[in-house]
Amino acid sequence: xxxxxxxxxxxxxxxxxxxxxxxxxxxxxxxxxxxxxxxxxxxxxxxxxxxxxxxxxxxxxxxxxxxxxxxxxxxxxxxxxxxxxxxxxxxxxxxxxxxxxxxxxxxxxxxxxxxxxxxxxxxxxxxxxxxxxxxxxxxxxxxxxx
Length: 146
Known about the structure:
The chain is mainly alpha-helical. The chain has eight helices and no strands. It has a single domain, classed as TerB-like, CATH 1.10.3680. The mean pLDDT is 85. InterPro entries: DjlA_N (IPR007791), TerB-like (IPR029024).
């Protein structure tokens, strides 16, 4: 279903993603991090929906639909390294910091910092070009609720 989208996303020198494609790619990344601990529960799904409502001004129905599409894309997406590097090339730095904050929201949604989720978030941060310090600051903002 997403083969053409994935092909465009991982081809050399991707262009800046159109807004709808960027939303889908970033939602799939949220899903990938949520699934990292092999437990993808309702609190994580709800958190992804709330992130998309707040970030993109979607209705709850639209956010759930986007999450569903993101779940499908995540299942079909290549390894995290290629997928995340493609997003890095297509999304500007400020938006990538916002992505890291959203990822931390998902990781912390179930109230547990799982080692697999932490490890994946460190990898994703690095691949998105976000250093450990900026990722830690993003996590602290999320934990403070600011």
